[in-house]
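Look over both lines:
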Amino acid sequence: MDIVIRIITLLASFFAVMVVLSFHEFAHAFVAYKCGDPTAKINGRCSLNPMVHFDLLGLIMFTFAGFGWAKPVPINPLNFNHYRRGLTLTAIAGVVMNLIMAFLLFPIYKLVVLYVNIPLWPIQTFVEMLFMLLWTYSISFCVFNLIPLAPLDGWRVVEALNRRHGRVYRFFERYGSIILLILIAIHFVSGYFTVLGYIDILGYILDFAVNIVAWPITAFWGLIF
């Protein structure tokens, strides 16, 4: 029984990641195109086809560890009609898309739990798990990408809004991805070694921020369900 549940969970996680990441990356490409840069469209990234967005290692990490990445959407900011505005809108497009998805997916998840009744329990469990993960991944991916460390969207916003590139900026530009990987590693390993939970900075940030982002959504739909 435990093995079946684990397989169902992995499958549901895999498909949920495919959907969440595809919409996230599509949003970047689409907004960049609307702001005047056709680079992503030319490279076939203005698509909801998961195959054009996925980085294999990032997909595996997301499925098994809860954190991952897709192939970066190629952009040329020099093509934007308004450089700083185009850069900012393109940077936040993915997290806005995930937030919209979370808002729409939560009531669907509640409806599935309340009204969908499939006689075969593995299929019922998969469907419930899938929509639950679509909702939670949308929220967590939205919040995770707001962290101002390269190569996340939060860092792209910093790049777009920051006019002065001083020492602090250059430090995080150079080492931000390394810091991020260390934070992810600590967060993942802390699940196996309790003592590391005390230094799980990423876990504290995500738990706090996810609750803030999720509360208005659950409170709004809670008026109905």
In short: The chain has a mean pLDDT of 88. Helices lie at 2-34, 39-42, 56-65, 83-115, 121-145, 153-161, 167-189, 201-222. Residues 2-34 form the longest helix (33 residues). The two ends are 31 Å apart (CA to CA).
